Amino acid sequence: MMPAPYILLVDDEPHNLLLLEELLAAEGYVTCSVASGMEALEQAQTQRPELILLDVMMPDMDGFEVCEQLRTNAALQTVPVIFLTALDDDASRLKGLAAMGDDYLTKPINADLMLTKIDSLLRLRQLQQAAYETKINQQVRAFQAAQVKSRQQMLAAQKINEALSEKFRLFVPDQFLQRVAPQGVESIELGNAIESEVTILFCDIRNFTAIAETQSAQETFTWLNTFFTLINQVVEACHGFIDKYLGDAVMVVFDRSHRHAVDGLTAVVKISQALVQLNQSPAVAELGSPIRIGMGLHTGSAVIGTIGASRRMDTTVVGDVVNTAARLEELTKTYACQAITSEAVVQQLPNNHPFQLRWVAQVAPRGKQAQIQLYEVLGMDETQQPY
Questions:
Q1: CA 358/CA 375 separation, integer angstroms
Q2: Is the pTM of this model over 0.70?
């Protein structure tokens, strides 16, 4: 049940206040009576009325002044005001309008007319309040819907960004990003680079051209991916990462501080072991002959970074260590070895390393002047931990 409307009565004549109180009480209104303009302002601020019946002719502050002050008060400026006065001239009516009164009734008051105007103003006020609340609720709902949509868009954008980042990492290893873009993918710029000592592994498939001639491109594509998947599994287990695939070859980087040489040699041995199992699988059996590979391993200083142009760049490793590793892989054909490593790698190994190495030769690889001691990688003692 709605509470009875509260009306403030303002008149300096007690008799008029008594009549108004009785009349309005009979209609179910709650009233409060004051005898001056100052009291009216104080009471209105203490308890906000829903309507004010305001006498005009009062000492100290007349009704017009009271109404003008009400209209300057943010909390009270919309309270409906009906002037009750004996002033029946046009000038007074205009003054009441100028003071922004809502209605103007002259004494003696027609009770039915006054009650009708009070009811009309209160219902109009309720309609305005309902319309205002409806508008506010609509704005709140629209704002909430916008927030929900914004959150959904942000979540969708975040998921897309995460998905793109995950896809991006399929092309650019985390180790690269940690070095050239530690603040995230967005911070990648052309020329971002860092120099450090690494071990590089080149692995190449022997007689690839002859194999590819005997099958369709799709068949070649299928078993190549099987082979590269095997390589990647071993490399990741040995703390390295693949820099790039070069048709039938792959270039691998090992960059763990003080352990990259051990990681590289371990990967060479594990790849050789995994290749034996792969050659026994049905996927390779269809090739007619087992897959044979050559591997070259070398340690040295390199720059890991981004290279290219501002609109097309790539991540890569640059340095003599890369060229030398590639040349060592070529020498595996000359010395009929599956894997050759350099003295630079061997010098990085601890004294009690588990690797089985055989000295091959001292040569200057193609395109180089300095000679290098070469060792064939035969295997490793599985009972010893290389780490």
A1: 5
A2: no
Domain final residue, candidates 132, 160, 184: 132
For 227, the domain range is 174-380
Cβ 240 vs Cβ 252: under 8 Å: yes
Taking residues 307-326, what's their average pLDDT? Answer: 81
Report pLDDT for 212: 76
How many angstroms separate the CA atoms of 12 and 360, rounded? Answer: 122
CATH number of the domain within which 216 lies: 3.30.70.1230
Strands (E), the chain: 6-10, 30-34, 51-55, 81-85, 103-106, 193-205, 240-246, 249-254, 293-309, 312-318, 339-342, 355-363, 372-380
Closest by Cα among 85, 106, 109 to 11: 85
HSE-CB of 94 using CA atoms within 13 angstroms: 3
Q: What is the DSSP string of 101-159?
A: -SEEEESSP-HHHHHHHHHHHHHHHHHHHHHHHHHHHHHHHHHHHHHHHHHHHHHHHHH
Q: Mean pLDDT over all residues of the chain?
A: 87
Tens digit of pLDDT for each residue in 91-145? 988 999 999 999 999 989 899 999 999 999 999 988 988 888 899 999 999 898 8
Stretch (H or E) spanning 57 = none
